[in-house]
Amino acid sequence: MKRELLNILACPVCKSSPLKMTVDKEEGGEIVEGGLTCQKCGRVYPIEGSIPNMLAHDR
Question: Is 58 a domain residue?
């Protein structure tokens, strides 16, 4: 995932933006592993294989 996407992503549950990014692994300027956390409702969306999983999961 490219860092620039953070500017257009919002929490699919509460629609809050911006999300807070946590980076566990980065390669060639792309986030490969990490997470996106909603600062309003606290939900965490994983980034795996450079793809953010923005599906709303039960807590």
Answer: no
The CB density around residue 27, as the number of other CB atoms within 10 Å, is: 9
Q: How far apart are CA 22 and CA 35, in angstroms?
A: 5
pLDDT in tens, 3-59: 999 999 999 999 999 999 999 999 999 999 999 999 999 999 999 999 999 987 665
Question: Domain for residue 32, yes or no?
Answer: yes
CA distance 18 to 29: 20
Q: Angle 5-38-3 (CA atoms, 0-180°, nearest 5)?
A: 20
Number of domains in the chain: 1
